[in-house]
Specification:
Keywords: DNA recombination, DNA-binding. This is Tyrosine-type recombinase/integrase. By secondary structure, the chain is mainly α. It folds into two domains: 15-134, no CATH class; 146-327, Intergrase catalytic core (hpI Integrase, Chain A). 48% of the residues lie in helices and 5% in strands. The protein is built from 14 helices and three strands. The chain has a three-stranded antiparallel beta sheet with strand order 1-2-3. A hairpin with a 5-residue loop joins strand 2 (197-203) and strand 3 (209-214). The longest helix has 21 residues, at 37-57.
Amino acid sequence: MNESLSEYSYAHFTDLDLVYSYIHLETHDDEHKNKNANTKHEYIKDLLQFMTFASFILTTEEAKGNSVLRLLEKRHIRQYQDWLKNGSFSYGKKGYAVATRAKKITIVKGFLNWLFTIEFIEYPLHAIFKKVTINSDELPDRSLSYNEVMELLTFYKDHPINHAILLMLATTGLRVAEIAKAKWSDLYLDTSINGGSYFLKVKAKGNKDRHAFILPILLESLQIMRKRRGLNDQLNSEDDTYIFVTNKNKPYDYNYLSNYVVKIIQNTKFKWLVEKQGNVSPHWFRHHFVHHLVVDLGADLTVVQKTVGHESRVTTEKYVDKYLSNKQNAGLLLQDINYRVS
């Protein structure tokens, strides 16, 4: 519909049309700052889940032939938020973790706010959600110690593919999506740093350029892996092949690569894996990277924040707060021998 007519332009859109329109809505005049493909995928997943839930709680007669979104009321929003927190799922888990709930609610709130703005719904349902606060002690423990990382690397030292993937994750702090998209031409030598240092240029969140330092041992591992795949192993700014490829020399889908990492870690059957909260995924190595630099090596938190590409210092702090609190505990100054009774 044309906006010059009395009816607004979205009047005859279906619910799915609205989801599609919202996800592809361009909010920045700089196209690089709009949602990328991975973000759109997450939005689709969470919005369709919300709509499926809404369809389920509405009666068949209510939903028949009507827009589910038009029928939503305040009570439905409360039910949805309660379901996210306390719902029973097929795998026996009760509710989502607080960080996951916060993410889903943020996406749905944005969608409902947009529906209200375009006058598709009459009530600001986005305002009904209760605030979800994420405290550091509520975040899942995704810590990998230096020794645990070294055990994994040692286990796969004779497997060029797995070793290169794990070493890349552990020593760069890159997201798995950034690694999956990285090309051989993105590797370069900066002669102005320490007499010559290697870096990898990647597209980070928000389509921002990020430059990850590449240790010599990592470059060696990547070159061995490339030889195994039958690819060029010498730096070449014109070689646009992907760094990590399948045995058919096709680039990894980042979800596939993420699941692959989970699988090869599980295959080690290390005893300490049983004590972890959930499967060890690529994101755990990002936590390890921050933890090792800040807690073990004493790197400045702000410098690490910029290195890993966190928009907010608070995000980086959440990775290490608990461990820094223990390391900086004044009680460590006490001497055991001073309290022993002879």
